[in-house]
Amino acid sequence: MATISDLSLSDLRRELHKYPEAGWKEFRTTAYVAEELEERGYTVHLGEDAIDSTERLGVPDHAEIEGARTRARDEGAPEAYLERMGHITGLVAEKTFGDGRGPVVGLRVDMDALEMTEATGSDHRPANEGFASRHPNEMHACGHDGHTSIGVGVARALAIDGGFDGTLKIFFQPAEEGGRGGLPMSKTKHLDDIEYFIALHLGLDNETGKIIAGYERPLSNAKIDVDFRGEPAHAGKAPNEGHNALQSAATAIQNLYAIPRHEEGATRINVGQVHSPNAQNVISDHARMRVEVRGETADLNEYMLESADRVLEHAAGMYDTEYSTTLYGKTTTFEADDGLVSVVADAAQSVESVTTIVDREDIGASEDASYLIKRVQENGGEATYIGVGASNPSGHHTSRFDIDEEALQIGVDVVVETVRNLPSN
Ligand SMILES: [Zn+2]
Fold first, then answer.
1. Fewer CB in 10 Å around end: N or C, the chain?
2. What is the DSSP letter of 200?
């Protein structure tokens, strides 16, 4: 593929869908988007200039990153942009329009795929129409291919038709899944002067034509990887000499789920994986657990994290093992700002294909745009998160996930109309 600039929004989405890249591996996606946006007169910040690399969470090991970068090159990604981003994906594109006296507006879209395998049956449209994932164990099962396309669509519409006096910054964020890319992107200087900030999500079981102007109050979330390290021993000859890491993990699981619920609101905990690769006759010397906690507020999330840590410490103590934890990802929560919510609702009103407008609704899930939103709000800016219905035939994060591509243009139109209607502060 030469460039993506000739592709319609749905063809672009299909192109991205075909070549999904999981978190921190979005080299091909970043490179193609950067190329088009630079051609359209946007200033493009890449790699270390787009992400605070010291704050990155849940980064795959170097060999995996290098492999993804090589794959992107093999699949046509423009070399100049691969070079400019180095080993760090993500980009911020900015452009000042008109006399530039209007507001500085931020739009955040995410780009990463999930580590899962796409359905192949003929009842799954991407498979049936030849644009299913070509990458084993990677799939756009959450609609981020569509989000990236909407970001490009907004960049195109404003570059071509104008109608906005001000500065637009589009944040193409890596590694949203797991809550790994929002925090490092929120720490960059690009957020400092944003007066209005918009993030969005397709689908989420809303039909095409429905717009939620203030999707809010996502659960705060943290994912931790836990390692118990013990002492191996022969399970028959000297079991007493072992310090059983697997037993610590098992004890931890029982008690993590028993962390008391909190009077102040909803909390969640889940252990998704335990791994201890010993033979039957060896006292386990290492067990790894992947755990997540959530809370209705950031404080409740901290309550769960602290409680979990106490359980882990004592589960280690019971069997004389050592434990350590690594933060894999983290998100916080937010509420949308009234002023911006009503600008979005009014903008949606003027988009012909919008059939239903809801002012505010709780998201229910977790979302790491929360860190960018918080940062903008702390600086005195306004922010919201828009739900763009896309009649997804199957749930998010399932192998038959798909979106109605009509929703792409609706998303673009609502954002562009919003940007054009924002008051100057
Ligand atoms: Zn997702």
1. C
2. E
